[in-house]
Amino acid sequence: MSETAPSPLPTGYYLQNFQTVLEDVAARYGDLLLPSERERLERFLRLPEGARLLYVRMLTRQGPWFRTDRLHYPEIPDGPAAVAALLEQGFCLDGEHAVPADRIALLKKEEIMAALSALAEPHTRGLHREALAQLLAGYPGAPRLLSAWPVVSPTGLPWVRLIFFLFFGNGDRDLTDFVLADLGQVRYEDYPVDPAGRLFRTRQDVDFLLALEDLRETFEAGQDLEGVTALLRRMEPNPGVRQQRRFHRLLNEVGRAWERRREPVEALACYALSERPPARERTTRILAAQARFPEASALAAEIAAEPRDVGEARFARKFLRRLAGRDALAAAWCALQPEPGPVPESRLTLPRHPSASVEAAALEAARQQGWEGFFTENTLWNALFGLAFWDELFAPVPGAFQHRLQSAPADLGSPEFHARRSAAIRARLERLAAPGALPRDLLATAGRKRGIANAFVNWRALPPACLEAALDCLPASAILAVLRTMAPNPTAFRSGFPDLFLYRRETRQSALWEVKGPGDALRPEQERWLLIFGQEGVEARVVWVKYAS
């Protein structure tokens, strides 16, 4: 985030930004737009400027209905003419399409009471607005009275959604990102935008992902699990990596929902279609719960042989050891596999911290032992990665940067990220391994880039003093081990780091604590990092906290 004062926005900035999106989509994805979508885009650009300004204004406000007597903006001198142009060209609906509830939602309490008074309704004293609104909606004569307040609603919202989806590559962003950048609240790296780069190859890719987002919204709303499941099973994603990740993630979440309903057959059917962890782990657990031990052991052994992430590896190892007494395959596997060493641990009995945070209580106890430190969890280590590979993250790789509002390349979450930059990453690691190079280079990068958006660097959560302490007291070998581990797949390895970073300036000692309160458990990714740090000579342990009272 930027620390500079906000810049004044030019008149009509929001229309300029929206038209930037439209022009980019037309140039980059014009061949993927349907004729009606292209025609609407071209028709919008032919509207009078006032109409275009008003349409985008409504898109950025909470709707879908608006009172025309409230659509007043200094940059739109003739509001009624703008409304008329939008209605004429089909970019707005008029009040004929609004139901009474739509209109009543736009009225103030006093206006609702005035309408009820006109209807000779005597029972309004002491009622709150919601009750008054319900009372008015029940009157047969309400629609006639409500027409005194003309309303309009912008049309083409699915078209707008598609345009933003094509521009940003997802459905989570809109014109707000432009505003934050225009105000100077977020600054972006000065990377070259590739006008020929495309995230979507075919219209089928686009339609698939839009349908997948619709299914996710339905699923997260807790509606129609059966229907979501049926549609998911019929969907056939193209082999694009971006599509596969989202598709398999939703399959896993739907499978877990079926497990919670105690419907293992439905859950297994979802997991069978998913190639993303923890689908195989969940399948193995269901098979074991059904006493299908040979099948469960065979799948666990397959996972152990080729795990897709560290969680799968840890699960398979522990599962096969638990099953060794019941299944011959599991027993044979365990006989050939040595158990890895335990993670160092300690136990503390502490008073509850005023913040109710178990990490804060442990940090206070560490300070009483002579440590300095701060809560970091993933913030510090992700920042070290982002600073170390800043140039590689923002390298002008074809298709990596589609617009000026990116904090990371478009291929970050795919195998192509490392494959396309492997030589540069390898060279960077070699340079950082030179004596004194790592703290010098990372601090210099932090000084030059502070405030510029980077998907791995949370500037506000990492004051310069904390970064300096970490680079001064941590062994360079430990930081390099983190960088080497994260580089092949940064998004998969960006979590699970210890909660607390502790240090003693005078001796340049450091320690890393993963703090666990009552009832908590150590996750696979947390165990992985503690073992890696231990191998590099850092005091890294899990600290089990019990409260004194």
Main sheet properties: 5 strands, mixed
- Terminal CA distance reads 41 Å
Give the strand content. 5-15%
The spatial strand order of the largest sheet comes to 4-8-7-6-5
Task: Give the structural class.
Answer: alpha/beta
Topology (elements, then pairings):
Layout: H1 13-29, H2 35-46, H3 49-59, E1 66-67, H4 79-88, E2 92-93, H5 100-104, H6 109-118, H7 129-137, H8 142-146, E3 151-154, H9 157-168, H10 175-182, H11 203-220, H12 225-234, H13 241-260, H14 264-273, H15 279-289, H16 293-305, H17 310-323, H18 328-336, E4 345-350, H19 358-368, E5 372-375, H20 378-388, H21 390-393, H22 416-419, H23 422-432, H24 437-449, H25 464-473, H26 476-486, E6 500-504, E7 509-516, H27 524-535, E8 539-547
Parallel strand pairs: 4-8, 7-8
Antiparallel strand pairs: 1-3, 2-3, 5-6, 6-7
Gist?
The protein is an alpha/beta fold.
What does this structure look like?
- With 549 residues, the protein is of the alpha/beta class.
- The chain has three domains: 13-182, no CATH class; 203-336, Serine Threonine Protein Phosphatase 5, Tetratricopeptide repeat; 345-547, no CATH class.
- 53% of the residues lie in helices and 7% in strands.
- It contains 27 helices and eight strands.
- It has helices at residues 13-29, 35-46, 49-59, 79-88, 100-104, 109-118, 129-137, 142-146, 157-168, 175-182, 203-220, 225-234, 241-260, 264-273, 279-289, 293-305, 310-323, 328-336, 358-368, 378-388, 390-393, 416-419, 422-432, 437-449, 464-473, 476-486, 524-535; strands spanning 66-67, 92-93, 151-154, 345-350, 372-375, 500-504, 509-516, 539-547.
- A five-stranded mixed sheet has the order 4-8-7-6-5, sandwiched between helices. A three-stranded antiparallel sheet has the order 1-3-2.
- α3 (49-59) packs across α4.
- The radius of gyration is 29 Å and the shape is globular.
- The model has no long low-confidence stretch (mean pLDDT 90).
